[in-house]
Write a structure and sequence with these properties.
The chain has about 90 residues and is an all-beta fold. It has one domain. Helices cover about 0% and strands about 35% of the residues.
Length: about 90
């Protein structure tokens, strides 16, 4: 198998990763840089949680709690409204 066998890590175990959301999770994001990896999840209620793992080559250590993150508010993350300059008027 290219890349070797898949090793699954259960990040919902309260003993190793307390604070996993009790609401249903409907989305996930994984990011990594250098020796750090983050997993973010969003629940059906729109609440976002994150946990951090340490990376050493192909080995991951997931032993940190899930922490609730600031939930984005629709419209706040958008840029300013586009300029209408240069657009022809329509009737």
């Amino acid at each position: 198998m290219p890349g070797g066998p898949i090793v699954w890590h259960d990040l919902t175990t309260a003993m190793r990763n307390p604070g996993y959301p009790t609401d249903k999770v409907c989305g996930i994001s994984i990011s990594a840089q250098d020796n750090n990896a983050w997993v973010k999840v969003v629940t059906v209620a729109g609440t976002i949680y994150q946990t951090h793992g340490d990376v050493n080559g192909q080995d991951f250590t997931w032993d940190e709690p899930w922490l609730q993150q600031a939930t984005p508010v629709p419209g706040v993350v958008r840029a300013a409204a586009p300029s209408k300059a240069g657009r022809p008027e329509t009737s």
